[in-house]
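Duplicate of earlier report; Exostosin-2 input re-posted below.
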Amino acid sequence: IMCASAKYNTRGPALIPRMKTKYRICYITLFSIVLLGLIATGVFQFWPHSIESSSDWTVEKRSVHDVPVVKLPDLSCRMHTCFDVYRCGFNPKNKIKVYIYSLKKYVDEYGTSVSNTISREYNELLTAISDSEFYTDDVNRACLFVPSIDVLNQNTLRIKETAQALAQLSRWDRGTNHLLFNMLPGGPPDYNTALDVPRDRAMLAGGGFSTWTYRQGYDVSIPVYSPLSGEVDLPERGPGPRRYFILSSQMALHPEYRSELEALQAENGESVLILDKCTNLSDGVPAVRKRCRKNQVFDYPQVLQESTFCVVLRGARLGQAVLSDVLQAGCVPVIIADSYILPFSEVLDWKRASVVIPEEKMPEMYSILQSVPQRQIEEMQRQARWFWEAYFQSMKAIALATLQIINDRIYPYAAISYEEWNDPPAVKWSSVSNPLFLPLIPPQSQGFTAIVLTYDRVESLFRVITEVSKVPSLSKLLVVWNNQNKNPPEDSLWPKIRVPLKVVRTAENKLSNRFFPYDEIETEAVLAIDDDIIMLTSDELQFGYEVWREFPDRLVGYPGRLHLWDHEMNKWKYESEWTNEVSMVLTGAAFYHKYFNYLYTYKMPGDIKNWVDAHMNCEDIAMNFLVANVTGKSVIKVTPRKKFKCPECTAIDGLSLDQTHMVERSECINKFASVFGTMPLKVVEHRADPVLYKDDFPEKLKSFPNIGSL
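Output:
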């Protein structure tokens, strides 16, 4: 007010200088007051200070380290948080019981149906469950509940009203112990990768999960069923090279993906076939059964059988029915869909049946696939067809696989093994299972019996006996004297060893004599060893025995060999060169269970045993076939040893040095595969070595320091 009055003073000119001075002083004073106020406010706000407590208002002084921690609830479901296993109770058969709600029609307040009539696919799914060993019609005995509300295809649903219908179910309880099946989730424009219907604690068996929506260990990723599976009968085609190397058959692909595929075809020519929707079909021809390339029309899905690899790209949804078609054709799927959770990936080993390529690596697809060995491609072709037959070909297969996965979570001690989920059943004269029924590993104290097959190499035989006797776990040594024209040495000439030594004379000179179930074999473990194998150390043999104890139904040996398919000759061949793979071990030094001696002698298929004795070769290959066929498992190679080198052996007495040896061995493999009706040998890329074997560590602290060289 003072400043204002000074500013608007109307007195005479004589007072103007004094008024100007007052005006200046006024504003300086006002500015100073405002400045001091701002400074005081800043000091109060930012200067470290505390508020002293008073009797009227107290604030508790507390360090940040003393603040109580409040843990927010985990909203993501797991079996131990959202599933009530106590409802499953004790079941002597280790099988969950599944109840299916009775079918009802749900309508809104206007009488309009909430969802369409139940689909044919969902009806087949419910029928499969009701016909299975999981089903119960007693709601009080049920462990798992399946609604009769069809949510397979979200396109047919009214989201809000469907959620209300689910909430009306008598045992819903926020979805606890309920299972929903959905194959086509989401809708335009974003196409969510999981069902948009609120489901709370309910499990979802979904056909298009991504890593963002999949609840690990709770939900189940299932295939998107292809209707063509029930309409088209594609006969199984044997593995091997096909007309095209890469084929793409999907329609309505994203333009960016299609341009990259077209570039791939332009670069690699006729080995790549990119198909699209046909636009010039005659009336009455179903477009879903045809694919076109320019003016050329192809039958679908039959054309898939003409390619080695088939591309499976993501579409609007991650899950694509074309994956099922590709598997049915025995074509190896090349899956290009980042973050996609593959169907039944909780139990299925997709590396054995497919190639997964990141989307950014799509231009490098051809070179990536060229690096896959032909043998691996053929195994993947077989595995792809097997996956379709076992888990994709019908709604029944999908439903039962889903329930089995949930069952294995609830009864893990009775769960199906990896081999049962992933190994296709071969045509065998005996079922693939562990024939030994050994719940525990054999006791180390029992040891093993060494069986040495010999003819007349006495000096070498004695050296073998001396070396083998140094193995701590040797229990007995049995010499099979295979020479009917010469007597074995006198008792006084044999090496003096710490374990019983028994000599058995045979009636005929047969290689199969080494695998006879002699009464003298009292241990479960048998070491078959030739009379010229003098290079194996006692550490190598003891380690081999320890490995066998962990895998008593396997052949455990030292030098490995491999069988390969010769595409030029169209037959199997025997391979002994350096490779990364092994499918056999030589029984010139190998551990196995004595049970296999009985099978070899009395249960060998066909004329294999007589054929071996007549040709004086391949008894070791025959034993490899036998064990693999009975167990469905691979051999185990131990230590780096690759070859047996015998310094005293010559071309006269060394069978393996015969120039025709490799040719004969290849003939053996083809002969045995024909008799068995399949190729039971399993190829693996690993071996067993002792811990600390190559570590820079004092030798005296290693359990097996003396492991031989190659």
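The longest strand covers residues 474-481.

Merging into the original ticket.
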